[in-house]
Amino acid sequence: MRIAVAALICSTAGCKSTTVVDVYRESASVAPQADEAIVVLGRRHAVSHNTEEDFVDCVGRSLRQGSLNVIPEKQFVDSMYPYFETSTAPTDVKNLDKLVQIPAIAAKLNEYRVRYFIWVDGATETVDKAGSITCAIGPGGGGCFGFAYWEDEANYEASVWDFKNLALSGKISAETQGTSFMPAVVIPIPLLARVQSNACKSMATQIQDFLK
Amino acid sequence: MSAFTRFGIVRAGGLLAGVLLAAACATNKVAITVASDIPVPVTSRLPLKAGVHYPEAVSRHVYEEDSEDRPKWHIESGASQIAMFSQVLGSMFSELRVMDAMPPQGSAAGLDLILEPKIDEMQFSTPAELKTEFFEAWIRYELGVYKPDGSQLTTWRFEGYGKSSTAFMKNTNEGMNEAINMALRDAGAKMVVKFAEVPEIKSLAEGR
Questions:
Q1: ipTM, 2 decimals?
Q2: Does B98 lie at the interface with A, CB-CB under 8 angstroms?
Q3: Tens of pLDDT along B40-57?
């Protein structure tokens, strides 16, 4: 019964997410060759948000499943320490030129055979929430009653840098919204809108198309 | 289970946990021994032989606070501070010698300079304090630079800042540890990137 009610809410009221993707192409991009690599990195210098490691990891994994050679973010950032930290990372594609003046960095980048840097900036945030759930525990057991919902919004932008030409190839943005519900009749049952996950999949798909 | 399903469940779990545990388990207590993770820097070594002395105020650094908002805060970061300085300074100079004490005047034979770090200030903030989703740590250092004859060459001030998000139901200790680790990492990054540009150090290196 509980599951039926929850499923009804989910199917009638939402529990879905919608994604809007926008692609801006600055210059013609060339598909990376088989021995060339891509690195997906998160921007974390904003005061208001941190691009989640999980999101960056998800985009990287999705691209890897699409047969692209993607270097994991932590592996790359650690191996380039301290030049891709939040306070030292290049903020403009032209700054890469300065970085390669450092022989050790040039050697590492050459070793990785990096062709594209993809910088992801954004976050998933709860923009609205309402309802209440009350829980009680007594000698005979416990339970929760009530209903809550929350609306999540994911906003991400990926900047694609062509390392070979030291130029911005383009930008891809993904904006996803969705509402999750949690009815509670003894046991709370979360019905989740996969907002962040859908933003990741949409962005990864667009990046793959972009680099074809 | 995918990371995002887990993320969603954690979010939902967080809401439920808030309902269940807000009154019973809420605590602002922080008790950590900071665990740091500083990679080996990729950098060109300065052509200088350096000595470094870590005062006890650094090697056994403890931040303590006991107030209404921050009851029984006890943050031990000494070992992590030394780990960060050792990792970073060890990659910056052609030779690095760790000294138990500042050498008596004129006895630092074979060295070009002697370093002595000092922690000037530490500041923290929690999500509850600033109504954000982040734990934040900020550390300000002074790096005393001395000539082998014991006279002071310069004092270089730099900072490390780190933040960690509250996602995945991190408790205060975990969140704070991660923020401090990020601050140490940032401080190390600043040393590698900026110390060689300090005029006195630049001049010393160019003279070699």
A1: 0.83
A2: no
A3: 999 989 999 999 999 999
